[in-house]
Design goal:
Length: 354
Amino acid sequence: MIARFEVRQRNYLAPDGSINRALPAFASDAKLLIDLYRAMVLLRVFDRKAVALQRTGRLGTYAVSLGQEAVSVGIASAMREEDVLLPSYRDNGALIWRGVKLEEILLFWGGDERGNHFSGPVHDFPFCVPVGSQAPHTAGVAYALKLRKEPRVAVCMFGDGATSKGDVYEAMNFAGVHKLPVVFVAVNNQWAISVPLSLQTSCETLAQKAIAAGFSGEQVDGSDVLAMRAAAEEAIAAARDGKGPRFIEAVTYRLGDHTTSDDASRYRSAEEVQAHWKEEPVTRLRSYLVNQKMWSKSDEEQLAAECHERVEAAAERYLATPPRRPATMFDHLYADLPEAYAAQRRELVGDDNG
Ligand SMILES: Cc1ncc(C[n+]2csc(CCOP(=O)(O)OP(=O)(O)O)c2C)c(N)n1
Ligand SMILES: [Mg+2]
């Protein structure tokens, strides 16, 4: 035997909100726990509105976080402002936590590039839609942080499907070799559109994929925001401390469709989805807070009203934003437009400037 490995599993809150083991230190901060709860509820309300806008022809497409709210909120809450987030298209909870405005997210999904010029930290990356391609970007960012000797960490979020992409392995390998300040977060929601996890890998965990790249991986209950926050805190602190990369596998479940273009009932059973509703993160944290007498029915009603108002106001601002000139679709990808696109642009705008 020359190699042996183990993968830890982390969980604090059971689905009914009871505690499985001693809570991490931050859990004594009632305000923080309530902020985590509020962020998850806001995300859920926002998702519902975004889908309604799409269904009524006012948004292009959208990917909901239903069931996964604890992952993006838990991760973002452990980051410092100066850290760098490289999100996938489903990590809205992290963007919102970091200060991106709701109407900016709607602008992006409405096809308006101004949504990417967001109010979050300017150095954060925009949503990455090509699966897994944010992983090599993250390794590059972390390499730069290390060269500049800046105590900052790059945090990369991608799905279980992305872990089958070469980009992800290459990024992890490079990060391991150079001991880069990176945290890779694989959001294992069990599905990559209609491809189940069983067809994605024959590994027992995604976390163990880190071992081959020379660093450790941990499996975390992604429906437990306390576990997500605690795992992220530890991994980010280690990366900041020069101890190299870490990998977090957030085990969760996508309760909704892949995007508004999908109908998940065509490839998975209602029973399967129903079973996972019993684990979802919002009820779980609420049960804990209520058990601890930190949250009441009237707090809940007030929060629901606040979220509704905030989301409706953001939607109004989005809908009131005048669309850009169509020719601006050529503006943001290339510094110098290749001739094929330049010709299309000329065809669109004629001789006028667009
Ligand atoms: C490079 C690339 N190939 C294919 C697609 C089409 N596509 C969009 S999402 C997706 C599945 C991704 O699944 P996963 O990584 O598990 O993320 P999830 O959507 O579950 O959050 C695919 C194949 C894409 N966007 N990019
Ligand atoms: Mg997935």
